[in-house]
Amino acid sequence: MEEKNMEIATVGGGCFWCTEAVFQEVKGVETIVSGYTGGTVPGTPTYREVCSGLTGHAEVVQLTFDADVISFQEILIIFMATHDPTTLNRQGADVGTQYRSVIFYHDELQKQTAEAVVKELSEYYDAPIVTEIAAAETFHKAEAEHQNYYRQHQQQGYCSYVITPKLTKLRKLFADKLK
């Protein structure tokens, strides 16, 4: 059996349900866990606490991916294209620091790659990219009801109006990267 070249990526593009749904369709992404990171309050935060905006945590997904199938750079390009990296602490109707656009890097190479991707993609946006690039911190897995959310609730209003269009864009722009 061939050994895989597994790496971790942690990104936040607003609501973690959206980002999770996007990466569930990407070839080479093995696991996706919705959770919280980047906060200033000790302990494991709850969804309600994070949504209050008082903990400083961002809603993120932590991906485990096979770097021989998809690179960290490609992960970031998909991430940037499937959310709005130009709105500070906001994605659509979701407002607050918990919905910030952020890349949490796990090593110096990921940091350099993130900086290069943001710089390269900035020319494609009318407004400046405000995506934060920060060192990975303690990751807290979100409650069970937030895992695999879109697949379990596709007919819910938020899912059909917010997440489905992101998946349509993903499928159009990155068809060659899909499972």
Q: How many domains in all?
A: 1
Oligomer: single chain
Would you identify the CATH H-level superfamily? Peptide methionine sulphoxide reductase MsrA
SSE ordering: EHEHEHEEEHEEHH
What overall form do the CA principal axes indicate? globular
How many strand segments?
8
What is the CATH topology?
Peptide Methionine Sulfoxide Reductase, Chain A
Describe this structure in words.
- The chain has helices at 16-23, 47-51, 72-81, 108-121, 149-152, 157-173; strands spanning 6-13, 29-37, 58-66, 90-91, 94-95, 101-105, 132-135, 140-141.
- Helix 4 links the parallel strand 6 and strand 7 (132-135).
- The protein has 179 residues and is an alpha+beta fold.
- Helix 1 packs parallel to helix 6 (157-173) and helix 3 (72-81) crosses helix 4.
- The strands form two sheets. It has a six-stranded mixed sheet with strand order 7-6-1-3-2-8, with helices on one face.
- The radius of gyration is 15 Å and the shape is globular.
